Structures are given as C-alpha cells and as structure tokens.
Protein 1
Amino acid sequence: MKGGRLKTCVLISGSGTNLQALIDACAAPDFPAEIVLVISNRADAGGLDRARRAGIPTRIIPHKDYASREAFDAAIDAALRAAGVEFVCLAGFMRLLTAGFVNQWRDRLINIHPSLLPAFKGIDAVEQALAAGVSKTGCTVHFVRPEMDAGPILLQAEVPVEVADTSETLHDRIRQAEHRCYPEALRLISAGKVRVDGESVMFSE
Ligand code: GRF
C-alpha cells in the first residue's frame, strides 16, 4: 500500500453477497482497503444496489457490447485505471478474463471460488462436490492466473457437507465461510502481509 488505504475495485455479475462482506469490512475506519469502484457486466446484478446503498461508484460494462473478449477486458482495464484502482477482487464475476488482462493485473487480482481448489473447478463447483459425495468442501481465495480457477492460494476454509444438502443449502453454508475469508484476504493483502513468490503465497507478521 502506497500510503492510505488500498484502492480496490470489485467485479460482480450477481447478487453480490461477497461484495457486501467486503463493503462491511471496509466500513471499519482502520480497515486497510477501500472500495472505490464496483463494476458489473450485467445491469440487473443485485450487487449494484448494495454498492449504491454504500455510496460506492458503479459502472455497468455489458460484455455483449463488445465484439471480443479483448475489447471487453480493455474497457474494464480503462475503467480501473480511470478510477485509480490498485487492486481488484472478483466476487461472482461470471466472465473469463483474457490472459492479457490477467497478466496486466498479475498479483493485484484475486478471486473467490466455492470449493477447496484444486478440487471442483468451474461454474458448478457446488454441484460437483455433491455429486462426488465428499464429506467436506469449502471455499478458496486465490490470486488469478490465466487458467480458470487457478493461481496461488491465499486462504481456504473447510465446510461440512450434510446428508440432506441440496446445492442451495450447501452453497449457503459455503457463502457463510466466504464472507469471513474474503474480507480477511483483502485485509492481509492491503496491510502488506502477503507476498506472492512465483506460484506461492508467503505471509509475514
Ligand atoms: C460465490 O459462491 C463465489 O465463490 C463464486 O460466485 C459466488 C458469488 O456469490 N465465485 P455472491 O454474488 O457474492 O453472493
């Protein structure tokens, strides 16, 4: 952090409960990050209202307005730079980012995924866990690399799978863990306690 709070953007596509957890954490005056922008690729994302209620600037950048992934990512990159963003959190952002964008924001871009990576990559991670019959799953916060749901792992939390679980009940339980992990990950990074060394994450006091 170059003095002051780490200027953070959250990218969303949906309900934004993880965005809300980050907003709530950033409301503490001593939290070392602030959310300066929320970007959604969908105009109807519920998370946009959460941002507006918190007085955070929002941008809607519909992917359908762009002829290519590269052009869409360039529009996101331009919005981030215009807002002076230093760090980006993906929170239920349902678009694959190009390698060019990911490399541009390398080690300044994190994601949260509803499984214990490297298990159950992809959009149906919760359903995959149920189908596999595992007794535990969880969530992972990781630095983003061009490959989907890959990159140095920052934090993980384990969640039990109950016999009667549906994907909804299990995802709800995973979200509760996510809402603890994601703010903690952003806190550690913005307090300068995390260093990425190649594909490993190192923590310092
Ligand atoms: C979360 O489960 C996250 O792990 C995944 O998408 C979901 C987003 O949920 N990437 P929400 O919009 O934050 O409620």
Protein 2
Amino acid sequence: MTFTVHGQAVSRGIAIGRAVLVASSRMDVAHYFVTDEQVHDELRRLRTARDAVVAEITRVQHGLQETTGLEAHHELNALLDVHLMLLQDTQLQDGVKHWVQDRHYNAEWALTSQLEVIAKQFDEMEDPYLRERKADLEQVVERMLRHMRGVASPVAGPGGSDEPAHEDPLVLVAHDLSPADMLQFKQSVFVGFVTDVGGKTSHTAIVARSMDIPAVVGARTASQLVQQDDWVIIDGDAGVVIVNPSPIVLAEYGFKQRQGEVERERLSRIKNTPAVTLDGERIELLANIEQPQDTVPALSVSAVGVGLFRTEFLFMGRDGKLPDEDEQYLAYRAAVEGMHGLPVTIRTVDVGADKPLDRASRDDHLNPALGLRAIRWSLSEPAMFLTQLRAVLRAAAHGKVNLLIPMLAHASEIHQVKALLARAREQLDQRAAVYGPVRIGAMIEVPAAALAVKMFLKHFDFLSIGTNDLIQYTLAIDRVDETVAHLYDPLHPAVLQLVANTIAECRAQGKGVSVCGEMAGDVTMTRLLLGLGLRSFSMHPSQILAVKQQVLRADTRKLRAWAQEVVQSDDPAALMAD
Ligand code: PEP
Ligand code: MG
C-alpha cells in the first residue's frame, strides 16, 4: 500500500531505494556493513557472546540454590530458565544469522534488528504473560551486547564493504541517528536518509547535508510505518517520504531526479567563475567541514577557504577517550595542507546538546542546549582545551589558520579563553615546539553576544554568526525538536535584527564577519544577507555553487534599502518575494 510521510526537508534532491531499518530500540549500537570475509568473524562474535551469557545465567542459577529461600528460588529460577530458552531460540538465532549473512550487518546491528522483529510479534500477542516476555528478550539481548562491547571488534569500520548486501540502492530509515552515527555512514552505501526525530538544523541534519544526499528528518513515525525492504522515495526538497510508490509516481520522481542531475551539471559550469556581484563586490564563499578529508569536496567547488571546521567530530564516538595533541595536530594539519594555502577556520570543540561525546554520555539533562556545551565545556576541562589549542597553534605553522570559539556570551569567558591561549603558547615555547600565528574569532550564536557585539569586537579579529544556534536561542526553539520545528523561523524579525546588527557593527569597525550557520547556504537568504552587507558566507560545499549563482545575479547597491526594509518589517517573509 502506498503512503506518504511528511517531515523536515533537509538535504536536496530525490533518492529512490529500498528501506534499511535501523532498530530504534533502547540499545544504541553501531551500524555498519561488513565484508564477505568478515561475516564468519561476526557470527563467531555472536556465538561467543551468547555462550558467555548462557554461562553467566547458569552460574547465577547455581548460586541461587545456595543463597535464597525456596520460594524465591523457584520464581527466579523459572525466569532464568526463560532467559536461557530465549537465548537458544531458533527464531532469534536464525534471524540474526540472516542479517549478518544476507545483509552484511555487523553483529550488534543484526542482533538489535532481530530483536525488533521478535519484539513486534510479542507486542501482538493476546496473552499478557507472553507479551511481557518481550522485556526478558530485551534483557538477554542487552546482556549479549554488553559482552560484545567488551570484546574488541575485529571488523572494519563504516564502508568496510564495497559491495552492498543486495543490488538495489538503499535508503536508511531510523528513529534517530546521532551526528556521530551519521558520520559513520558518510562513506557508506546509502543514497538517502529518513529519521523520525530532528529539526532542519539538528546536527544529524547538518551532517546529512554535508553528505550531499537527500534526507528528511522529523518524519515522526516513519521508522514504525516503513517496513524493511519497502521501496521508498525521499524528496529532500519537499520533506516528503513516499513509501511503496506506484509505477507512475516512481516514474515521475525518476524524472525529477534526472532533472536535479541536469541542474547540478549546469551549476558546475560556474565552478571557476569568481564570486563577484553585478556591481563588482567580491564575495567570499567558504566551506564548512567536519573532517580533514572534506577539504576535497570543498576544493572541488572552488571554496576559497574553510570558514568552519567543526572539530567536535574528532572527539565523538570514542567511548570517552579523547584525541591527544598529536592526533589533533595531524588532523588540523591535514585540513590546512588539504586547502593548499587557503585559510582554514578551526572551531574549538563544540560538544553537548545534540552532539554527545559518545553514546553512553548522551545528555539526559533537562535542557542540554542550555547546559555545559561548547566553550562552557571546554573551560570546564582546561587540560582538554589546552591540548586542543596547542594542536591548533602547531597546525598554524603549516598555513593560514583562524581559531574560532563557539557559544561565547560572557566577558569572563573571553578573558579565560585568551588566558588559556597565552598559556598554550607558553607551554609550546617551553617545549621549543614550532607553531604559527592565528587570527582569533568568536561565534555570535547567543542573543546576548549579538546584543553585546561591541564587547566582542574589542577582543576578536573577526566574528562568525552561527545562525543555527542564534535562531534556537532567540526563539527558544530546540533545533532538534521536530514538534516545534514549524516555529524555527530564520525570518523572525528578532533574528534578522540580531544578524543585521552584528554585520553592521563589524563593518563599521572594519572587522571581518561571516555567517557560518545554515542560513549562509540557503539560496533564499543570499540576497538579503548581501543587502545587509555580508561579504563572507560559509556553508557545506554542496551548496556553494547554488549560492554563487545568486551572487552572480545580485547587485548589492539595489539590495541595500530593500534589506533594511525587510529587517524592519513585522512580516519579513512577505517582503522577501519582492
Ligand atoms: C551555528 O550554530 O549556526 C553553527 C554554525 O554551529 P553548529 O551548527 O555547529 O552549532
Ligand atoms: Mg552553533
């Protein structure tokens, strides 16, 4: 049966493929494909884990006989018998085997996928006693996962397999994916993504955008409605997911997909055209990157530098073991060298909120976005921060580096950052380590910072406006929460006034200013930002050419008065069409 699910349009274009469901169980595990050669090892890991859990339960049963009273003994023993039975259950074993052998899922993914299949069957059972056995099944699976976590994985990382498990294109459908999960999928086979949760500027969406493949987030119940192997169309422009489309719909979207390719091909012709407006204003189009290797797509669209290197992706998904100075230095240096002399803006680590360090540390505070995030976390961990600062300073010996600090609001934070930077230099001097000069910039992404922008200009060489957070904090809309996504409005007068004011103050004082939030890559905003005086835009490489096209068609002299009118208006959206 055909049906449609609506969500947030995240990433351009159309993807058509068969659904691969990532289990949305409480058990958060890594998901990746293994190679043919690794299938055997994965099955062995599963067997070892199962045998270990059987041995563990048997030991507990023996212990029971010695320590507990007769009645409790019977009850617990019966429960443990159920657990043993579930572990030996052929449906669990055969199912898991199928996911590994036929689909090439890693062991943990296979186990949680089969858990979902069986759990659904339990849910449908009439007998309440049997229905409750689902919890037992979850417990034994959790025990197996714990054992597997303790055993070093002999398998390759994401994308380890060149061969998809079957020949059709695959789209991934999940309840939620962390930004780190998303990064894991970056080199994998998926042609599109759908998640139940998330807003347009959630970090999961941002990484999807950097992959330049169609994605829809905030699709509510998609992961429950879509079945494994269903044919799915993802319209990343409209935020629509069509499941089991009819041949006519499929043909229509196939046509749209080809049209998109033609448009991209057309855009690629302006790759080497300088980004200069009709009135001769030179516009800087920079790339946002998450990993050093992202400099390759950045250069392929002629980005004139990196305006935002989100370094937190080096820190995430490492089970608390943070990268040391040398590892970071090598990564930053790789990015600097990868840009061949063009400037690279390295932002210090911004973890917290929807970018947890690892799965276990996922923030369960009430208001993680208002908590110990970004620079706040860095200042609370000075040794970690100094390590990063030293690594950035050393990388600056290899090319032009700007150091960017996220989420500043307070003068005290500015002073602490400066003192720690001086301390990092001293430490390098003591070791006679080679390092280079850096320009230092602040992100303006908290309304307090935008309102006190003069204070920031006294201390920094340049500012970069993080519109994703600026919108979130100005409008009190969690950027990750799809239930309030409709209120996340880049055109709210308050947001526009903060952006306009920051640009104007920087220009008045002759300081560099750029926008590095998603607003910079949104072609519907280019003219407005140009009209407000912005001359530096940083965005995912995939958006650079489309924005350049807007730049080439714009005359900033004509946009100035109109932009002021938009900012002063109660209904900016109405004026935007003019
Ligand atoms: C922003 O907030 O706009 C920004 C660029 O930072 P991030 O999206 O990484 O929070
Ligand atoms: Mg931000």
